[in-house]
Amino acid sequence: MQVAQLLVAVTAQSMASVEPDISLPQLRVLVIVATQGPQNLGTLARHLDVHPSNATRACDRLVRSGLLARNENPTDRRQLRLELTGVGRRMIESMMDHRRRQIEDLLGRIPAADRTALAPGLRALAAAGRENLGSAGSPLF
What we know:
Elements (H helix, E strand, L loop, with lengths): L1 H17 L5 H13 L4 H8 L3 H13 L3 E6 L2 E9 L1 H23 L3 H22 L8
Antiparallel strand pairs: 1-2
Helix pairs in contact: 1-5, 2-4, 3-4
């Protein structure tokens, strides 16, 4: 539980470092679009496991803030495609870079022999998490 709390704190700090006014559901939208590519609203709602109206509200706020764009789908003009804007992509990249630096700093404080011993367990934990999360296992946080 302490490691989970640490990782949540690292995630919260990385979010606050780049966009203090973004909510966790909005961040989930941005990360799904960043990792899964452009989405239509129905697909995004399924990834989020929410009703499409909830996904619409989150997307509306992100469009207004300039982080997400609604564009015509070139293969089906009846559908809109949700895509990150350049600002949205840079924000996600900045947040991930901040998190990566924090984790590197934490790992750097662990003696080399302990890091070597820790690595297989962390890989196994990550693999188990991917199996448990299935297709929703994009690196959300």
